[in-house]
Design goal:
Elements lengths: L6 H6 L11 E4 L7 E2 L2 H4 L7 H11 L1 E2 L2 E8 L7 E8 L2 E11 L4 H11 L9 E4 L5 E4 L3 E7 L12 E8 L6 H22 L12 E2 L1
Antiparallel strand pairs: 1-4, 2-3, 4-5, 5-6, 6-10, 7-8, 7-11, 8-9, 9-10
Length: 211
């Protein structure tokens, strides 16, 4: 179960506690004021480049009483799931999610995202690529990436893919900045998920290229 740390405990531990596997970390300045929230302190898997770290920081902002929850499961070849959420004063700021899925084609995958409300309306969306095989779409508050992935030893009969989603839950801020930032974070998360899911043919992802 998650446990709440006191301000004194957090100050002694560099103001950070992070526990992986469904529990949570808390961040609070010793004087009770808000602090800048970083990827390294909450969702470290996406803090692997300056561009992704800076984008994450802009999306989440600052605050006090920050709670982050991280889970990553991929013990068998036919399954992978990653999730990281950040809350500030009880309100969600960002949600990162990856599933090993059997989405069919890229167009089928995107249609399902739009139908389920996981991405914005089609007229507000912009598509992008991340190199050879990774495709993405971004709205004014979220981004998603489709990346083919067949885990080593997989017995899946339909070709699987990683479905990566990054959502700015408060939907505040400039639409174009949010779109760009969520795409950058989604790229970093897709790169991590390739390793976490043990994809057989991993790809060095290229930069976000809008199409």
């Amino acid at each position: 179960m998650p446990r709440q740390f006191t301000a004194t405990q957090l100050a002694a531990a560099a103001a950070l506690a992070l526990v992986v596997g469904g529990t949570a970390g808390y961040l609070l300045a010793p004087d009770g004021t808000g602090q800048k929230i970083t990827a390294d302190g909450t969702c470290p898997e996406v803090g692997t480049s300056d561009s992704a770290s800076e984008a994450f920081g802009r999306l989440v902002g600052s605050g006090e009483n920050v709670r982050s929850t991280v889970t990553e499961k991929g013990a068998i070849a036919n399954s992978y799931h990653y999730s990281c959420s950040v809350q500030v004063n009880g309100s969600g700021r960002i949600l990162l999610d990856v599933e090993l899925a059997q989405s069919g084609s890229v167009s089928d995958w995107q249609a399902d995202l739009e139908k389920n409300g996981d991405i914005g309306s089609k007229k507000d969306n912009k598509s992008f690529t991340l190199g050879k095989s990774a495709s993405g779409v971004a709205s004014p508050f979220s981004a998603a990436v489709y990346l083919p992935c067949e885990p080593v030893g997989s017995k899946l009969t339909v070709k699987p893919n990683l479905s990566v989603e990054v959502t700015k839950l408060d939907r505040e801020g400039d639409a174009d900045t949010n779109r760009s930032d969520t795409a950058q974070v989604a790229r970093a998360l897709a790169a991590h998920a390739q390793s976490g899911a043990h994809c057989e043919d991993t790809e060095r992802l290229g930069p976000v290229k809008w199409t």
